[in-house]
Amino acid sequence: MTAPHPSPDMLLGPVLDGLRRRPDVEAPELRAWDAADRYLLDTAAPWLRESPAAVVVVDDTHGALSLGALALGAQRVRVHQDSLIARYALAANAAGAGATAIEQHPLEQVMTPDAPLALLRLPRSLDRLDAVARLLAAHAHPDAVLIAGNMLKHMTPAQNEVLRASFERVDVSLARGKARLLTARGSRHLAPVEPARGYDPDHELHIVALPGVFAGASLDIGTRAMLDAPEGLPAYATAIDLACGSGVLAAFLARRAPGARVIASDVSAVAVQSAALTAAANGVAVEAVLDDGLSQQPDASADLVVLNPPFHVGAAVHTGIALRLFAEAGRVLRPGGQLWAVWNSHLAYAPALERAVGPTRQAARTPKFTVTVSRRR
Length: 377
Description:
This protein has 377 residues and is of the alpha/beta class. The protein contains 12 helices and 18 strands.
């Protein structure tokens, strides 16, 4: 008599219970996995029992999908994560679990014909979803299955239509635990998505953005508020565009001081690639760096840091990332150096900036945003 398979609860419970978010923001209200991760894994379990070969995982946030797939029987997991913090979190959780059969790959190489199953955390950006779906479908076996999911509050019917462009059939699951899944089959081969290109005539800046970059190839209103600040930026020999997105501010700084060293830093790989493309489109020299904050920059090494910080940690509105970035700017600035930050006025970051950097004053204010200048003590 054949012994029954262990239930997903038995296999996944120890894995999920052991996950941590580090080096991502950790707080009592933030967890390293959610109901969408669990729904994806429970749905994938039958495939993994029948075909325990390579599994592809895209944009795993902290390792739940990758380590969960291994626990359910996958022989190896091919992973692509745009976020460097997500890569670090997966690596730390994998080391803690003693898991070694996990391979990181560029997005265009992560899918292979010998992988019968791919798991995807659905991005909120439709452009990013289109880019991911096209690349997965282009390299997939004809019988491969893509299961994509997220929490309901981050899903729209438009995501179904985007997937249907790259797959012949898309099935929509019932909701469970405020999460939903889309299962796609029958890959179509479409051309990869090209970067979006824009131009801001007010500041004569070209903008190039790969799919998924915040604000795309346009100038978001926070960045515009900083560029429009009535008081000019100080002189600088080294300047950093922290959390650079498409790199618009880095290109502006490089054009303003052609002899300066300008660094564009972001935790997102597509943002860093976009910053390099934006610099090239504007004919300026910028060092685009994939980094967790400013970990690669020495103490007291910069004259100027500009920052338009994110105010979400995953799906939650949370100040944790901004506070970390303020502290990083304070560490990297030379005494007397300046942090120019733009932020949603209701967040009232001025006291935090005073603590992390030094004396802080308001340089500009719009109906929604505040631009502040903090001088390093």
